[in-house]
Design brief:
two-stranded parallel ribbon; 11 helices; 13 strands; 41% helix; globular
Amino acid sequence: MSAPTVLLTGAGGVVGQSLLRESADVRLIAAARGPIDAGRAVRTVHCDLTRDRFGLDAGAYRALAAEVDVVIHSAGLTEWGLPAERYEPVNIEGTRRVAEFAETAGATVHFMSTAFVAALLPGAAAPLPDSNITAPYVRSKLTAEQLLAKSGVPHTVFRPTNLIGDSRTGWTSRGQVVQLLSDWMCRGRAPFILAHPGNRTDIVPQDLLSKAVLRAIEQGVDEGEFWVTYGPEAMDMETTLAVCAEHAASLGRTLPQVPVVHPDSERGRDLSGLTPLARSYLSVLRDVSEVTMASGGVLPTSLPELRARFGLPDVRDTDAYLRTLRYASAPPEGN
């Protein structure tokens, strides 16, 4: 049986670049709007999910559909804090076009969502306020999930928490919010940390997500929802700060003990006396804590199933986090 041909949307993104580094018995076609590192892809197709037929002419679109067996739908606007309408062209309408393509191709879709949809599902621990910086993004992902469910195309949904670097090396194609906040904390700039009691710092190495998706394709999986999170295994905030202190010590810094403050306390609500950067980062921490609390404080997880079913390695989040911090702080190659 020949290896399935997989169209990877968002090939230039963090998830896409991670997928292009992982070995698997699949034939990858990298879809992106601009130039990318195509990694192990057999070729690159320049696509625009905001346009009909991905911006391809009719003949090219039909030819691509005839070739593709599976779609990994990783393309999306992931930046937080934008107006809801900014997420519609790619996250929602782009997903609609992917579903239409999959129907034409007779392909299965593996959709990259977010674990924060737990805050919007029935039974959520608390309502997610509209003011939360993640809310428009998370709602767009949930809407895309619902769109796929209604489309009738065979599909899975992968719901990763915030991604960090590769579990083995710490590598990532682009630093994200975890790296930015962690660097600030590891430099001793945080006057305090905002977190609700009982919340876990749930971050997951990007290669665990990539491995899970590729093993699902190899096994012909065409349905299911998979929470790519650590759940009850995830670090608490005190452990997170201890990892930061260990990393700082390796760089010759001694971090002061940083208090963990309840976001709804008087100190947590009034950030007016702090620097603009501290106000910005603490506001993000408050909102991440808020969406985590709305999700139950401990995110749902499929990690035991993913390990057993797809052979994911048993990686401690603290080890992967430390490798991410070390990679992010290392001087660029050649310096």
